[in-house]
Every structure is written in structure tokens, then in C-alpha cells.
Amino acid sequence: MAFVDIADASLIYGEDGESGTLAVKDTTLGIERGEFVAVVGPSGCGKSSLLKLVSGLNLATAGRVAVGGEAVVRPLKIVGMAFQNPTLLPWRRVIDNVLLPMEVADGLRSQYRRDPAPFVAKARDILATVGLKGFEDKHPWQLSGGMQQRASLCRALIHNPALLLLDEPFAALDAFTREELWGVMQTLWLKERFTVILVTHDLREATFLADTVYVMSNRPGRVIYTRKIDLKRPRTLEGCFEPAFVDHVHALRDHISIARSS
Questions:
Q1: How many CB atoms lie within 10 A of CB 165?
Q2: Closest among 259, 168, 255 to 220, alpha carbons compared
Q3: CA-to-CA distance for 240 and 229, rounded, in angstroms?
Q4: 223-251: per-residue pLDDT in tens?
């Protein structure tokens, strides 16, 4: 069984199965431990709903969702999440925002209170990795949007999650900052090799970061195409102009066009 194993999973929003909204239908995919995958598709096709199924924030209406060999029947503790907006608490320093999961999560809170030093050291180390050394004691309003998103990624990783779920984390940033953060994300993943599911509308982003890209259909979403990205790592922005990279992007775009018209 794959680390993330989804078999014929469907998700209906609403209490009444007949009148509710069918967001995901009969979706099947498997993600190996340590793999970086991206999910792309038309707007409203159920990409974010797929993340909710994997995390346990919503439970499958039908089919099976399992992570680490166990059925997902409640929100998972082994997951880190980052979203389009950083959602940092403005009254807390950057390092305190990064450490927030250690203060509030069951199973971590007592460990952190007993001996916070190792976690503070890890927070400082991961902030340095993403280029925020020297900004630990700043507040979010003192940082640029890109720097805030870096801090958000650090917060998602502070508790060593086995699975990182990213819901369009770079979409609100300008093109140059977005591309810079692709490199930051790749560096973090190459260092730790956690499993990642990235939802994005940016096909270049998906190709740059992922080992495998899944294309979803129009709602109700299901996987209609799988693309293996066989490009060497570490990947560079210069590589985005090479024929092999461009071919992957064009293939993904063609299948999304098909999905939109179906």
C-alpha cells in the first residue's frame, strides 16, 4: 500500500447525500513516502477537497482514504499545512508564530513545555534555511509577503510532519517572489524528504517541484491524467526554458484543456 492511498474516494458536501454538492468522485491515486506530487485542474474541480480528504478535515463519503497504512477517520496529527495566505498572528514575533503548533497541538504541548530549547533551536535553524535568519524577533507586519510565506512554511514544518499539504501557497505572490520560493520549497524537501501534496494552478510550478503531477477533471473531480516529471534535481529556474521542461508543461496544459471542455 502506498503511503497515501486513495481508492474510489468520493466526497459530498452537505448532510443530504442527494441534494449535497458532489466535489470529488471515484478518485484513485497512490503517493509513496517521500514523494512530492502536485494536483492541477480547472477551477472548482475539487483539488482543495482532495487535501481535506487526505488530512481528515473531511471524511470520504464513499471509498477509502488511508495514510501510513491506517484509514483516515479523523484529522491527522502527522500533517503540516500551508495555504495561500500566511495567516500569521500579527501580535506574535516570527519565531513565536513558527512555534505555535508546539503550543496548541495535542501530544506536542506537554513535550514543548517540558523542554522548549530543542524546538526553539529547530525553529531558528529552519528560519535560517529559508533565508529568515535575523528576522526571528520581527513581527509579521515588518516582513514582505514572500517573507511571511516563508515563515508560514516553517510553521507547517516545525513539528516534523510526515506529510505536508500545500494549498496554492505561492499564488498571491508576485512572479519573481513565487519563483524564488519554488527554490526554497525544493531545498526544504531535499533536506527532509517529507511527503508533499501541492495544489496549484501554475503548471510551471507543478513541473518545477513535483515528481508526479495529477490532472483532475471538472467537478465532480477525479484524476484523469498522471504525468511523471523525470527531470534531474535540484531543478533551476534556467531549466524551465529547456525543451524537456516545456514539453511537460504543454502536456499538462493540453489535458487541462480537455478537462475544461468535458
A1: 25
A2: 259
A3: 13
A4: 999 999 999 999 999 999 999 999 999 99
* Buried b or exposed e, range 129-140, using 16+ CB within 10 angstroms: bbbbeebbeebb
Q: Give the angle 217-207-250 at the CA atoms, nearest 5°.
A: 65
Cα–Cα distance list, 255 to 39, 106, 200, 206, 244 (Å): 13, 42, 15, 14, 17
Select from 38, 41, 24 the least CA-distant residue to 255: 41
Q: Which three cell numbers stand for residue 102?
A: 508546539
pLDDT tens for each residue of 122-148: 999 999 999 999 999 999 999 999 999
Look at residue 138 and give its three-state secondary structure.
Answer: coil
- Which residue is it, cell 492511498? 5
Distance CA 260, CA 33 (A): 31
